Amino acid sequence: MHYSPIFITATNTDVGKTYTSLKLIEELGRRGLKVGVLKPIETGVVDEPLDGAKLLRAAQKTNPALMSFTCKDIVPIQFELPASPFVAKGKENIDLKALHVSFEKIAKISDIVLIEGAGGLMVPVDEKLYMYNFIKEFGATALLVTHGNLGCINDTLLNLRLLDSLHVKYEWCVNLKENEEHFKEVTLPFYEKKFGEVLIVQKEMEKIVNKLLV
């Protein structure tokens, strides 16, 4: 059975997209699914795309057909400058057709494809394209990862407002890397009042995947 792709994004850079993606791969693999991965664009690449390499190695454990794939296959667009794609690309053009070719190649050998964005939803890719556009480009369900530090309520609500305006299917979760007690005291009461259930990456990956696969 083939599932719709999942686009992993976050409220900002360094919030935990790759960490969450690796947890997703692990849970999906536990269910016997062959996972494919695509990171359309990665910046700050010197020798190899660090995030892309982690994703590929993890996915290969669930999907033997990926053993012949390289980092270039799953990170088709790479730039050295650690900046938004808009800046890092210089005068180069972003080839959307090439991204779709890469996606289809991966999708053919996978039960589900995880697509990891770069930075957050509003990261500019070129003059007209933003990272959030990839959700509809690939017909994906979005998973928004938010942090648990002070200020996360504002960050989360702004991103959820954007996702609502896009009329796309999405779920969201909290990557609670630190300050769990502080989060429970100053943030969780609002989240529970507004949303009810709050899913934590470190504790409820099974529930997160259940929601994404519906």
Task: Explain what the structure shows.
The chain has 214 residues and is α/β, with parallel strands linked by helices. 41% of the residues lie in helices and 16% in strands. The protein contains ten helices and seven strands. Strands 2-5-1-6-7 form a five-stranded parallel beta sheet, with helices on both faces. Helix 1 packs parallel to helix 2. The mean pLDDT is 97.
Top keywords for this entry?
single chain; 214 residues; alpha/beta; Rossmann fold; five-stranded parallel sheet; two-stranded parallel sheet; 7 strands; globular
| Helical percentage | 40-55%
**At the first level of CATH, what is the class?**
Alpha Beta
CATH topology heading: Rossmann fold
User: What amount of the residues lies in strands?
Assistant: 15-25%
Radius of gyration: 17 Å
Number of domains: 1
Write the layout of secondary structure elements.
Layout: E1 6-10, H1 17-30, E2 35-38, E3 41-42, H2 50-60, H3 71-74, E4 77-78, H4 85-88, H5 96-107, E5 112-120, H6 133-137, E6 141-147, H7 152-166, E7 170-175, H8 180-186, H9 188-195, H10 205-212
Parallel strand pairs: 1-5, 1-6, 2-5, 3-4, 6-7
Helix pairs in contact: 1-2
Would you summarize the structure shown here?
With 214 residues, the chain is α/β, with parallel strands linked by helices. The protein has helices at residues 17-30, 50-60, 71-74, 85-88, 96-107, 133-137, 152-166, 180-186, 188-195, 205-212, and strands spanning 6-10, 35-38, 41-42, 77-78, 112-120, 141-147, 170-175.
